[in-house]
Structures are given as structure tokens and as C-alpha cells.
Specification:
With 111 residues, the protein is an alpha+beta fold. It is 37% helix and 21% strand. It has one domain (2-100). The chain has helices at 20-27, 56-73, 83-97; strands at 2-7, 12-17, 37-41, 46-51. Strands 1-2-4-3 form a four-stranded mixed β-sheet, with helices on both faces.
């Protein structure tokens, strides 16, 4: 599964995927074998969140990474009284990507 969203108000695109191969194509790098998830960006506002084990805990973990990267890209330092921006963004990203966490579907290992 793959889903791409635009994140208001920052204008960046985030693609969520549960497939290591899709992550690798989008990031032009391979996901390590056995990785539960990964997050990265191209420096131009295109982010990829990989949730290969399809677990909600992995999704929220990777969404925190994405939030830190997105806010850093737009000049918001989450260490200085800006925790609320990070909390809202992480929540929004998690809500947008939770479609990857279907308890009835097995992870797509190696694909």
C-alpha cells in the first residue's frame, strides 16, 4: 500500500508505504533487511515514511522522525517552546498513515 499526502501548512509531501522496495525506489536507497520502518526525505520537501511491519508503534515512531525533519526544514526548533507544533504534526501524520496498520493483513516482507 502507498499513500501520498500534502501536509498543510508546511506544503511538504509525505508518502507512506508498507513495502521496503517502494521505500527504496522513492528514497533511491535500500531499506535494510529486517528494518521495521524508516523515514527519510530528499531535501526538497518530499518525505517517505516506511512502516514495513505494519505496527502502530512503528508508525508513530517514524511519524516522530518525520515531524522533526519537517519542522526543522521550515525553521521550527522543536526543543524551544514549540512542542505543540510537533505534537499536532505527529498526530496529523499518524492519523494520515494509520491505513498501513491493518491488523488483518500480514506484513509484506521483502517486497
Amino acid at each position: 500500500m502507498k499513500r501520498t499526502i500534502t501536509v498543510p501548512p508546511y506544503g511538504v509531501k509525505v508518502t507512506f508505504t508498507d513495502k521496503p522496495k517502494t521505500y527504496g525506489v522513492l528514497r533511491d536507497t535500500e531499506a535494510p533487511v529486517g528494518a521495521a520502518g524508516m523515514c527519510g526525505h530528499d531535501g526538497y520537501g518530499n518525505f517517505v515514511v516506511g512502516v514495513f511491519d505494519r505496527k502502530p508503534s512503528t508508525l508513530v515512531h517514524e511519524c516522530v522522525h518525520a515531524s522533526i525533519m519537517i519542522l526543522g526544514m521550515v525553521g521550527i526548533d522543536v526543543r524551544n517552546d514549540n512542542g505543540e507544533a510537533m505534537a499536532y504534526l505527529t498526530d496529523w501524520l499518524w492519523s494520515s498513515g494509520q491505513c498501513l496498520c491493518d491488523a488483518n493483513t500480514e506484513p509484506t516482507a521483502g517486497q
